[in-house]
Structures are given as C-alpha cells and as structure tokens.
Amino acid sequence: LRGSKSFTAALPGEAERNGHGLAYKSVSVGHLEVAPLSPSRLSLGRASSTATSTVAPEQGGRPRDYLVLAIFSCFCPVWPINIVALVFSIMSRNSGQQGDMDGARRLGRMARLLSIVSIVLGTIIIVLYISLSVRGNISF
Q1: pLDDT tens digits for range 114-135
Q2: Nearest to 93, CA basis, from 46, 21, 38, 14
Q3: What is the pTM of this model?
Q4: Which residues are listed as membrane-spanning (predicted)?
Q5: How many domains does the chain have?
Q6: In this structure, is residue 77 part of a structural domain?
Q7: What is the pLDDT of residues 2-23, one digit of tens each?
C-alpha cells in the first residue's frame, strides 16, 4: 500500500467546519502556506502560547525588554550570564518591533531573570573578594 501525499490541514478563512469549531481543507503537501517563524521562536524552540493563553491582550503597548537592566548587569563579574541576558534583551526588542508580542514578552522575562541572577551572583563575588582581601588572604 502506498500512502497519499494529501491530508487535512486547518487553514484560516475556510468555510467548512469539522465539528470541533476548526476550519479545515484538504490540500497536498506542496501547497501548504506556512507563516515564517520569528527569530525568537526559532531560538527558543517553543511555539507561541497565544492560542492557550488566558491572559488579556497587552494593555500598555509594547512589552518591556529590560535593556537598561541587562546593560547594568554587564558591570558585574559574571560575564557569560550577563552577556546572554543582553542578547535576550536585544532579541526581545527586535521581536516587539516586528510585532511578535508573545515572543517579545517571553524573551524579556528571560532577559530580566538572567540580569537579576547576574547582579546577585556578581554582588556575592564582589563581597567575597573584598572581605577576603581585607582579611589579608588574597594578595594583589
């Protein structure tokens, strides 16, 4: 037996309903139209949660990208973490400018988390360094 190259796919704007409230249309593999994914979705490998979200739509404009916090965290001595936070913040800003509010929100939260972790770890490292150098255990 040989499998068919056509199948049923949900496409927006179709009049037929499949009994579950979703439109469907039978198409062949070569004729599918897929919207391009934003860079934020490609980099994180997670699908948008717009369909399953129970949160009301954005009420204050663009989501925050925490760029200032990420730049401030770059002054802490935890460079791999704060550089990644800065990259996530820039990706959040780019996603927001391209209209991908869900991706911008998700990337902004990750930038905020990494920036806070970087600042906390950097503060601990600085305090330990100063306390050990005052006691005379560390020499310059």
Answers
A1: 999 999 999 999 999 999 998 8
A2: 38
A3: 0.56
A4: 66-90, 111-132
A5: 1
A6: yes
A7: 555 555 555 555 444 555 554 5
Q: What is the DSSP string of 28-95?
A: EGGG---PPPPHHHHHH-----TTT--SPPPSSSSPP--HHHHHHHTTSS-HHHHHHHHHHHHHHHHH
Which tokens in the block code for residue 25?
Answer: 């249309």
Q: Flag whether 22 is in a domain.
A: no
Closest to 63 in 3D by CA, of 17, 23, 16, 111 = 111
Residues whose CB is less than 8 angstroms from the CB of residue 121 and which lie 6 or more positions away in sequence, other chains included: 76, 78, 81
94 belongs to a structural domain: yes
Element (H, E) at 7: strand 6-9
Q: Tokens 């601990």 identify what position?
A: 124
Q: Tokens 């973490």 label which residue?
A: 81
Per-residue pLDDT tens for 30-82? 554 555 555 544 444 444 444 444 444 445 688 999 999 999 999 999 989 99
Q: Which residue has the tokens 């050990």?
A: 132
What is the widest separation between alpha-carbon atoms in the chain? 81
Q: 116 is in which domain, residue-wise?
A: 65-139
